[in-house]
Specification:
- The complex is a heterotetramer, with two copies of chain A and two copies of chain B.
- By secondary structure, chain A is α+β, with helices and mostly antiparallel strands.
- Helix content of chain A is 51%, strand content 15%.
- In chain A, strand 4 and strand 5 form a beta hairpin.
- The two termini of chain A are 34 Å apart.
- By secondary structure, chain B is of the alpha+beta class.
- In chain B, the strands form two sheets. Chain B has a four-stranded mixed sheet. In chain B, strands 2-3-7-6 form a four-stranded antiparallel sheet, with no helix packed on it.
- In chain B, helix 1 runs parallel beside helix 3.
- The chains are: A alpha+beta, B alpha+beta.
- Chains in contact: A-B, A-C, A-D, B-C, B-D, C-D.
Chain lengths: 375, 378, 375, 378
């Protein structure tokens, strides 16, 4: 029994941390904020070639490494810690999981090897632009080349993606489609989102052709959203850890009233609470990652606990970090707000803390054991 | 207990409302020149600083009337006026501590927006601990030479004059070595650079002072009394005008949210409904706290540590509402996100400005509850 | 304009405080905890004769002083501060208000003078023992002497009361009845309630005769519950103020690590927060009292704001008081828990904080201006 | 990461479950004698202290097995056993620091409940600051004479022996002047009085020591090393056994509430539903934190400051759940009120016992995050 990283996992963590530190430090990320993509495609290519990040999540039978969820989480945590702007979450985690959970075998064999090799990059378009958020309003006329119409929002890294995986409602129920970004009737508009270091897009489809890959059944969707929630949770752990480190370092250095502010109990105890919350986030996220690989039956509860805990933690800890920095932490030039923005951005994705708690409550108070209905 | 309004208050409110109805009928641009034009319009009807003496463009208004004034301007969604720092901070300092010449020279031009003022207090190394000021003014013959760096200066880029705190004495207790000056911001050696905050807006400046020369009559009041002099306007601005204005501004934001709920444009979750109800409660309480401020001043009491209670009441209400606004409209409305997110981001600052949460709690526990100070450093 | 006590109100406060300090100190109240009534009827008589407390709330036309709500609040606050176990709330406030709001003139003229003179003591039985709490399950067969059946809970000071005012559902709608405690079919059982210094009872009626006093219409009930909420709110202010004072006094005295615990920021800042909450409670309660007399149209909102604010404050401040006292605050012999128990007890009466907030939300988001439906 | 259970753990759990199923089939009274009878039943099958060496009635169980043991006893709703302080606190101290004679004389009788032990550490003036101990032991010839007052002593009224911390040295740093003793509670001069807590229960005692004579072999370990010795068992009890037991106890309380909701006996409001969900989350996290404790000990690490994280996790979860239980069933169920209210009241103590919230935050910020200590008193 070992609750923590194995030697292999720790080695992976160190190499990813080194890569991120040298290849996408925050100073560089800031320069990319006004660029076309928000990240450097050359760095993403190197992440694939040197680090194998594009292949990490793809099973060996499709040319990848088939890494366990914990290893994937190790990467996400380091990216979160550095706010590394790579499309790892969107392509290697979300799109890859969508294909594994929903696409038929032939389409998996067709698409996954190119993702693993880093030849193509994908993203997923799930959330519809109209309420209620749970319903799929995007519709498709079924057929070999379906015509899809609708609006998807909060699509990560859509600009420059080679494949957009779209979930749309057809006569036969929801279906996963592969859409070419250059296809007729498709528009990609950048959203004015809170999170500056990860771009979100609105994808509008108007009679856009798409290739059906498989039925988006409830079980597959649940797997996709549980995986996404867990991935975001461990990323939030990295975000919170970075904010805690920043706050503690500053509290040791900054002097007011003739002593370091970190010697005042008000600051010390705030830091202690940030630490406590961060530890809670860490155990919740790592547990969810572990059960995702080892005891999938536990995942629905573990993923929801992880997402609500890590979201609350990330928002609270990044806000406290601003407070401890005082005025300087409120400036544009300081990185504190980038972490706060990321925390809020991820808290709202794939279910708010309240919605996850509500689902936990329903699950644990319903008379009969139920399939978890992922919102 | 008697919270009833008297006839003088009602008449004051009626006159102001009539003025605002007429004055706000025409479009006023939102930039600095628009703010200056708006101030001139107010000035023409003696509505810039009603609590000032009539001789400088005021109305000798009572504190109750001043509260009505702030409330009505905010309710009418009147724009900021350009020289609010001059009116709210420099004005009271000059009225209380300025020489006759200084009052005559500056006050009317402050009210009329002919001169724009800013405040040069905060420094990078002196945030919570203002006694740690490093900006120094050295007397050379009869000229003060000032060098240092100031931050968080509203209207720093537009101002003609700054109310400056600088260290003039050595070998005394830190807060006794500070003097208060009028600093001409057009003087050589002054460099104001915009300071961008985390919301993306540049509402402040950093002001660099490099061997700036000030004449002898730039000094306000006594040498070494700057700490007390500089705080004259601050207490009233922070404890009265600002929270009254914010009370109305927050209420407008909340009312807009309630309107959107009524129109089903926002459908809050159960938890969000309770949050919104708490916002209703918070703003009600903020209003009552402000009412008690006015009551105390009206009875001739100093605000003292009451201002810390007001500050904490405001910051809690503002941050809670900012978060509510962000949460209730959520990411499913991305095109609308910027506006909501901005309020949430902006109010992160509420617990930092005007004395942090931690400083206010220190003040309350030591000066209001009489708990012991922390032991000094050994 | 004056937000605070007038000279007259301050004089009243001082005389009530002196009376309570000398006539019902907490040491004496503790001795009464195991007694038959939990309070000393002789002290209550003196409170009527010497202080006029029994007559305070009764209009002059019925032989009372017709004091303004603020003056009544001044008394309640001092009783809360001392946990003075007098039936002032139950008889002089709740029963008197019930009669004024719901009873016909003739019954007012009949009953109120004897309450004012302290010849009789009354209480009200409102809350039914079965859910939903809002519905009146107690029923009555209508007539000059109705037969009432049902169970009322959380009835204050019922033991020893000479009149129990019962709200019961009749064919003609809800009606206020006067019931004699010695009447047939009536049982009074003490509840095992959290609050030790104010007793609550379960009143069971089985075909019990009662005299109908008037219709318990929505408007009158709203007035009764708004008055009750405001009364509890100002009492909670006294409770919170007392707990704050205890905490601050102890923090100045108690030494750990060679210095008073009140010199540690953790304790100082907790006390500052207690102070802030107590001030909020105070302005909210006093405002509600003032509008109850001067601007009744504002009362529905002001009373709910006061009750939710003061309940949250009283619970938080009395809990923090225990925390600051450490181990000693957790003992039976220390008074800290008596305040904590009172705070929780009053928070639950006449609507929880959540229920008041919910009603505020409904009121302020409903399309049309509405009568406030008091739960 | 590897949280899988191995075969040895599964076998251990299966054997224990079988034992508990059989042993708990018969009624066990809830009083002290019932607790003693229950302990003897456990002892007979070597289930009192499985982590102890076999020679003293244990099973040399691993830390993982010990965790299973605590969890299973709690899940089976097994009663407390009478000498839990002896097993959990005195046992580890004697195993680590006792002489051969002390171990032989006391350990087996602790396990068998022939001797009942209590812990004599806390004093009225030494709560958070145990170095402030006033109870003094003075050597007269070869007899220690002890005078002082101890509080918060569980089983103080029933105990035969107490593990005592008393000051024996003067003129040294406060924590170096303390020694650890076996105190015979039947000795003249010992007076244990029940201490009633705010819940109304008398689960503790105050123990007055008036010139109590202790023989030379009452001293455990070296003179002046009592501070370290006394903490031997404490860390394990507070950081491991207690939170594991509480995790299971809280889970049982939560599961009962969820059952009542399922049966519509409790109909929570929207806010209460979210509270309950947070309780679900909190207990899940407490379980994982405990799991990480076991993992660290299993790898041979000391717990150190991790114990403070565990303490805070537990107290937050316990107080939150206690409040939930009180709120969700509410005053409309008065006959049921006492039980619910008791949990809420009892867990007020969670933030006070075993190091207050404030003490834990100090430990974490200074020893885990490396923030500076506060300046010493001048």
């Amino acid at each position: 029994m070992h609750f923590g990283l194995s030697d292999d996992e720790e080695a992976l963590r160190e190499s990813v941390a080194d890569f991120v530190l040298s290849q996408c430090p925050l100073a560089t990320t800031r320069q990319l904020l006004d660029g076309p993509l928000g990240y450097d495609p050359a760095v993403w290519r190197r992440a694939g070639i040197e680090m194998g990040l594009t292949a990490l999540t793809v099973p060996e039978r499709h040319g990848g490494f088939g890494a366990a969820p914990v290893a994937v989480g190790v990467v996400l945590r380091e990216l979160g810690r550095a706010l590394g702007p790579l499309p790892f979450l969107s392509s290697a985690v979300l799109a890859t999981t969508a294909l594994l959970a929903l696409a038929d075998d032939e389409h998996q064999s067709d698409l996954l090897p190119s993702l693993a090799a880093g030849e193509r990059r994908a993203t997923v378009a799930i959330v519809d632009g109209h309420r209620p958020a749970a319903a799929i309003a995007t519709s498709a006329v079924i057929g070999a080349d379906a015509a899809i119409s609708g609006t998807k929002v909060s699509v990560l890294d859509a600009e420059g993606a080679e494949i957009i995986l779209v979930i749309a409602e057809s006569d036969a129920g929801p279906v996963l489609y592969a859409v070419d970004p250059t296809a007729a009737g498709l528009r990609v508009d950048r959203e004015n989102s809170l999170d500056l270091t990860r771009r979100q897009f609105r994808v509008t489809l108007d009679q856009t052709p798409g290739r059906p890959l498989g039925p988006a059944n409830a079980r597959g969707l649940a797997r996709l959203v549980a995986t996404a929630s867990t991935a975001l949770a461990i990323e939030q752990v990295g975000v919170a850890e970075a904010a805690l480190d920043m706050a503690v370092d500053y509290a040791k250095l900054r002097e007011q009233f003739g002593r370091p502010i970190g010697s005042f109990q008000a600051v010390k105890h705030l830091c202690a609470d940030m630490l406590l919350q961060t530890e809670h986030a860490s155990v919740a996220a790592f547990y969810a990652l572990w059960v995702a690989g080892a005891e999938p039956a536990q995942l629905p509860v573990a993923a929801r606990v992880a997402k609500t805990t890590c979201s609350d933690t990330a928002v609270a800890v990044t806000a406290a970090n601003i407070q401890i920095h005082g005025g300087i932490g409120f400036t544009w030039e300081h990185n504190a707000h980038l972490y706060y923005r990321r925390a809020h951005g991820t808290a709202a994705m794939f279910g708010s803390p309240e919605s996850h708690r509500s689902a936990l409550y329903e699950r644990l108070t319903s008379a009969a054991p139920q399939e978890d209905a992922w919102a | 207990m008697d919270l009833a309004q008297d006839d003088a208050q009602r008449a004051f409110r009626d006159e102001l409302r009539a003025f605002l109805d007429a004055a706000l009928g025409t479009e006023i641009s939102d930039d600095f020149e628009g703010q200056r034009a708006w101030q001139r319009l107010l000035y023409a009807s003696r509505w810039v600083a009603p609590h000032w003496p009539a001789q400088y463009g005021g109305r000798d208004a009572s504190i109750e009337q001043f509260a009505i004034y702030i409330e009505e301007l905010a309710r009418a969604r009147a724009p900021q006026f350009a020289n609010r720092v001059g009116v709210q901070t420099a004005g009271p300092v000059l009225l209380a501590h300025g020489s006759h010449e200084q009052r005559e020279r500056y006050l009317t031009r402050i009210a009329s927006a002919d001169d724009i003022w800013c405040q040069l207090y905060s420094e990078p190394g002196a945030g919570s601990d203002l006694t740690n000021l490093r900006t120094a003014a050295r007397l050379e013959g009869d000229t003060w030479r000032v060098t240092g760096q100031k931050v968080w200066t509203s209207y720093g880029a537009q101002a003609d004059f700054g109310l400056l705190l600088a260290r003039t004495e050595v070998g005394v207790a830190p807060h006794l070595g500070i003097s208060c000056f009028v600093c001409d911001l057009r003087a050589p050696g002054v460099d104001a650079r915009p300071l961008r905050t985390m919301t993306g807006e540049s509402e402040f400046a950093e002001v660099f002072l490099d061997d700036v020369a000030l004449p002898p009559d730039a000094l306000i009041g006594e040498r070494g009394a700057g700490w007390e002099i500089g705080n004259t306007g601050l207490a009233s601005e922070r404890g009265v005008a600002f929270p009254l204005k914010e009370q109305a501004a927050l209420q407008i934001m909340l009312d807009e949210l309630l309107d959107r709920v009524r129109r089903d444009e926002v459908v809050p979750t159960p938890l969000q409904r309770d949050r919104i109800a708490q916002d209703i409660v918070n703003l009600h309480v903020l209003r009552l706290m402000n009412l008690k401020t006015v009551s105390q001043l009206s009875a001739g009491s100093e605000l003292g540590t009451w201002a810390s209670l007001i500050k904490l009441t405001w910051e809690q209400a503002a941050q809670h509402l900012g978060d509510t606004l962000f949460e209730t409209t959520g990411p499913a409305d991305p095109m609308d996100e910027d506006g909501r997110a901005t309020a949430m981001l902006r109010y992160r600052m509420a617990s930092l400005v005007g004395g942090t949460t931690q400083i206010q709690r220190n003040i309350l526990s030591e000066r209001r509850l009489g708990l012991p100070r922390e032991p000094r450093r050994t």
